[in-house]
Design goal:
Helix content of chain C: 25-40%
CATH superfamily of chain A: P-loop containing nucleotide triphosphate hydrolases
Strand order of the largest sheet of chain A: 6-7-8-3-9-10-13-12
Radius of gyration of chain C: 21 Å
Radius of gyration of chain A: 22 Å
Order of helices and strands of chain A: EHEEHEEHEHHHEHEHEEHHEHEEE
Largest sheet of chain A: 8 strands, mixed
CATH architecture of chain A: 3-Layer(aba) Sandwich
Structural class of chain C: alpha/beta
Number of helices of chain C: 12
Helix content of chain A: 25-40%
Strand content of chain C: 15-25%
Number of helices of chain A: 11
Number of strands of chain A: 14
Order of helices and strands of chain C: EEEHEEEHHHHHEHEHEEHHHEEH
Distance between the termini of chain A: 47 Å
Chains: A alpha/beta, B mainly alpha, C alpha/beta
Structural class of chain A: alpha/beta
Distance between the termini of chain C: 38 Å
Number of domains of chain A: 1
Largest sheet of chain C: 8 strands, mixed
Oligomer: heterotrimer
CATH class of chain A: Alpha Beta
Chain lengths: 338, 298, 325
């Protein structure tokens, strides 16, 4: 399996306020670094999960991959060829996306059939009978009956809309499907069906899946590899099994400890992770996680750890990863004292 | 889907749990689309009635609206002249009828042209932003900063009186409102996920602009349009009243009101009846506009 | 076991566009002193409206029927006026910390306004209580924080402020409407720990509404599962989660992905909840249930069991077998 998609040192900065004014004041231009030198490799047919909490830059990263946002540094490569926001149609169709909010990802004024037909027409299915057949085929792939074709999104439930969104993404026959929190807005009983659908489609169509989520448990159901992002940087990137069995980065451990698990009761006053993520403009020196890390040492403030590890697919950005010394599974700390 | 037929969707062979096919079902009544309210039909009926009068004016009007009969001027309503005659002996009823041929089309066009110009400019400004947006907005600021009536007077003065000048003047002023209305909507819509999805799918920008952005932004403009027709018709009457609108002897309600001013004590109907016509026309358009607003407000 | 809240046969109707819908169709719940009751349900189950009706926060076009009994000052639960009890025994924490705090008031004032209004505390007394509360909810450096504006705080901190506001009037019952849904997982974890601690320290009862059964499992002593405006099952959390007695509860549990157990793929529940505008008398889950029998739709809906463990399913034995009976 060769690498299909490659991100190399992708960096995205958002400027806030006037750079000119700041210059006149002798200060550096106020910039928010949403994505900080992210490098990822995705192989054909793989499903990789990108996990992080709000503000970590995962959505921005998704937008860079799919061509809605330009990277300020670094590059994105599809089968070795660099791609930017402006990309030829033949390239654009290969990477498609499903968005988070089923309520706003479909044009409310178009029926499902119209939404799909516009795409099919543009991509060269000239005759209307063939288009109709393809629409029905797409719908049955996502588990919807053809009666859905005549209705507008407002008559569909969230789960149904999300299936239509998936059908739309598949209509152009992409190689890579990016799901940006695609199940986060759905009820849990619907969520499971959509995840199962994504799994099945991946297998049947040999799709490569990039699954963005804040929910580790969901990612586990779908992904064979997981990259954890904190404040714009990948802090751990390993096969799912390894990451879940034996997380090497304290943030990953904390996320797993913090996630609610069925049948586990919480201890009063306990919290897996203290405080909140600092603003991306105010990053701690050295390791950006050190202000919340239960095991922070002096070196963590001085040197930013590189993303490295014992193998090309076993990577973590922590000075103490794989060290054998356990600087501490995050003990449940009393949350009342931050 | 379950139970008696033996098919159990919760447990399937593949263990994955997705083999059911979901029928689309209409969501509960509170989200069902509202049908067009009755007032739209009433308003449309009124406007249609006026339109028919305008079309069949020669058949309906008992007299030539321009035919003067100075001897029989200012006569009250009687069996010959159902609504009396004006100060030049012209039949009031005929003039009222023929005035629809001026007031209706010009009122409509005086709102339609601004609608077209403003909507196009506003959509482009909102969608593309940058220079187009800045330019459009600054020009609209300048136009709005001007006292509008003075601008119209100046334009009519330069271009000479008549329907064409009125339309040019109203368009030059009126586009601004439409531009702003639709620009606001476009700004909201262009960051919607379905627009991003269309871009990601690789659809051409022009198609996205029309199908995704415009169609979802134009609602408030359409709601405003009928009330703007009312404003335009009233403005036309006002300008004619001031002598700047449609020049005599063409019958026009506003001009008729002006002419009847001098005789308001004795022959009050000369000014009042044209006013009533304007009110009725305005009512028709307002009902349509209100009704549209209700039905778009799902 | 002293009861603090008793809700019986709560029905809520809403007028929308000329038609009436019934988002809550006969819900009954009870809460004991110091107990944390979870109300679990997906969107459209009526759980939020049920909670809001307890303190009179229904929309203007809504009407509620039923019996609400609340025990004030330690007595037996008695009928009360929902609008009257706000700030006098029952408080609420809302879902969206970004919008639930008045942006034109400083944090300290937000917390002290309740005690000053309801108890007539002086400015100094209210300030003392405010600072104490802020420490309690995990907002150290309280003096400085009290002068801040809500928009200067992050979501997690705002939620703590909201909890402090809710606690400021010393409620015996705290209602929580999905208070952690809009928060990051790590922050949610902190807030849940905080709520547990507050219950231990203050002896307060809590009703916690959430769509996340795992969160409810972490925090709550007992659970009521709602669906289509009705309570389908109640029971102690551990019992309910390990031995559900209603197929819907079992379906919910099976839908939840867990990262401990990869051998079981989560399964959804096919179909959709019934239309709230349509009347029905049998089991509301019958159309989606894998185990529906003929009498499920015809038998009028009712709960069986003891106060501690109830179910609306008339054939709970199907779950023991795990296959359609």
């Amino acid at each position: 399996m060769s690498s299909l998609l490659e991100l190399e040192n992708v960096t995205v900065d958002f400027s806030l306020g006037s750079a000119l004014v700041a210059k006149l004041q002798g200060k550096p231009a106020p910039v928010l670094r949403a994505v900080d030198r992210v490098s990822l490799t995705v192989k054909k047919g793989e499903s990789i999960g990108i996990v992080g909490e709000s503000g970590c830059g995962k959505s921005t990263l998704a937008q860079v991959i799919v061509g809605l946002q330009e990277a300020d540094q670094g590059c994105v490569r599809l089968e070795g060829q660099e791609i930017k926001v402006k990309r030829p149609g033949a390239v654009r169709r290969r990477i498609q996306m499903v968005f988070q909010d089923p309520g706003s990802s479909l044009n409310p004024r178009l029926t499902v059939e119209q939404t799909l037909t516009v795409l099919l027409k543009h991509y060269g299915t000239p005759d209307s009978a063939a288009r109709r057949a393809r629409c029905e085929e797409l719908l049955s792939m996502v588990g919807l009956s053809e009666s859905v074709l005549e209705v507008k999104p407002r008559s569909l439930s969230g789960g149904q809309r999300q299936r239509v969104a998936i059908a739309r993404a598949l209509a152009v026959e992409p190689d890579i499907l990016i799901a940006d929190e695609a199940v986060a807005a759905l009820d849990v009983s619907v969520q499971a069906s959509i995840l199962a659908l994504l799994n099945r489609l991946r297998r049947e169509l040999d799709l490569t899946l990039v699954f963005i989520s804040h929910d580790l448990a969901v990612v586990r159901q779908v992904c064979s590899r997981v990259a954890v992002i904190y404040l714009g940087r990948v802090v751990e990137d390993r096969p799912a099994e390894d990451l879940f069995d034996d997380p090497q980065h304290p943030y990953t451990r904390a996320l797993m400890a913090a996630a609610p698990k069925l049948g586990v009761v919480k201890t009063a006053g306990s919290a897996a992770l203290k405080g909140e993520a600092p603003s991306a403009m105010d990053r701690p020196s050295g390791c950006r996680f050190r202000s919340r890390c239960p095991a922070s040492q002096p070196i963590c403030a001085e040197v930013e750890p590189d993303l490295e590890g014992p193998a090309a697919d076993q990577l973590a950005a922590c000075h103490f990863a794989w060290s054998g010394t356990d600087p501490g599974q995050p003990q449940r700390v009393a949350s009342s004292s931050r | 889907m379950s139970g008696p037929t033996g098919h159990n969707p919760l447990i399937t062979d593949s263990g994955i749990g997705l083999d059911e096919v979901e029928e689309a079902r209409a969501i509960p009544s509170r989200k069902r689309f509202k049908t067009v309210p009755r007032k739209v039909w009433i308003g449309a009926a009124i406007i249609t009635a006026f339109a028919l009068v305008a079309i069949f004016a020669p058949l309906l009007a008992p007299f030539d609206p321009l035919a003067q009969d100075p001897v029989n001027n200012l006569t009250p309503p009687d069996s010959t002249h159902l609504l009396g005659t004006d100060e030049l002996g012209r039949d009031v009823l005929s003039r009222l009828i023929y005035a629809t041929r001026t007031d209706l089309p010009i009122g409509l066009l005086a709102a339609l042209f601004p609608f077209l110009v403003g909507t196009v400019l506003g959509t482009l400004a909102g969608f593309f932003g940058g220079f187009i947006d800045a330019l459009t907005m600054r020009i609209s600021d300048i136009v709005q900063a001007f006292p509008s009536y003075i601008l119209v007077i100046a334009l009519v003065f330069v271009l000479g009186p008549g329907a064409k000048s009125i339309l040019i003047a109203f368009t030059a002023l009126g586009w601004v409102v439409y531009a702003r209305i639709i620009r606001t909507e476009v700004l909201r819509v262009r960051s919607a996920d379905y627009v991003k999805a269309a871009k990601v799918s690789g659809l051409p920008t022009r198609g996205i602009l029309v199908r995704d952005v415009f169609r979802n932004s134009v609602g408030p403009s359409l709601v405003y349009f009928p009330s703007d027709i009312v404003f335009a018709t009233l403005a036309l009457a006002a300008f004619s009243f001031l002598g700047l609108g449609i020049p005599p002897p063409t019958p026009e309600w506003g001009a008729m009101i002006a002419d009847g001013q001098a005789h308001i004590r004795e022959q009050w109907w000369l000014s009042t009846l044209p006013g009533v016509m304007i009110v009725l026309l305005g009512l028709g358009y307002s009902l349509i506009g209100d009704g549209l607003e209700e039905s778009l407000d799902k | 076991m002293s009861r603090i809240l008793e809700v019986s046969d709560l029905e809520i109707e809403l007028e929308l566009d000329g038609s009436t819908i019934s988002p809550v169709r006969g819900a009954s719940i009870t809460v004991d002193r110091g107990e944390i009751l979870g109300i679990a349900g997906e969107s459209g189950s009526g759980k939020s409206l049920t909670l809001k009706s307890l303190i009179g926060l229904l929309p203007r076009h809504g009407m509620a029927k039923g019996t609400l009994l609340f025990s004030q000052d330690g007595g037996e639960p008695s009928p009360y006026d929902p609008a009257d009890v706000r700030g006098r025994g029952i408080s609420m924490v809302f879902q969206e910390p970004m919008t639930a705090l008045n942006p034109t008031m400083r944090v300290g004032d937000l917390i002290s306004i309740g005690p000053r209004f309801h108890e007539g505390l002086s400015r100094r007394q209210a300030k003392a209580r405010t600072l104490d509360l802020m420490e309690r909810v995990g907002l150290p450096d309280a003096e400085r924080r009290a002068k801040m504006w809500p928009h200067e705080l992050s979501g997690g901190l705002r939620q703590r402020v909201m909890i402090a506001v809710a606690l400021s009037t010393k409620p015996e019952l705290l209602l929580c409407d999905e208070p952690t849904t809009a928060l990051d997982v790590s922050v949610q974890d902190q807030i849940l720990g905080l709520l547990q601690q507050l219950r231990t320290d203050l002896g307060m009862a809590i009703v916690f509404v959430s769509h996340d059964l795992a969160v409810i499992g972490e925090l709550c002593d007992r659970v009521a599962v709602m669906y289509a405006g009705r309570v389908l099952e109640t029971g102690p959390t551990t019992d309910l989660l390990s031995d559900p007695r209603h197929p819907y509860t079992a379906g919910l549990i099976a839908s939840i992905p867990s990262f401990d157990r990869l051998d079981i793929e989560p399964r959804g529940i096919p179909g959709q909840p019934p239309d709230p505008a349509v009347e029905s008398s049998g089991c509301p889950f019958a159309d989606r249930c894998a185990f529906t029998k003929d009498d499920c739709r015809t038998t009028p809906f009712h709960l069986t069991g003891t106060r501690d463990r109830q179910t609306a399913c008339i054939h709970p034995e199907v779950l023991r077998d795990g296959r359609p009976a």
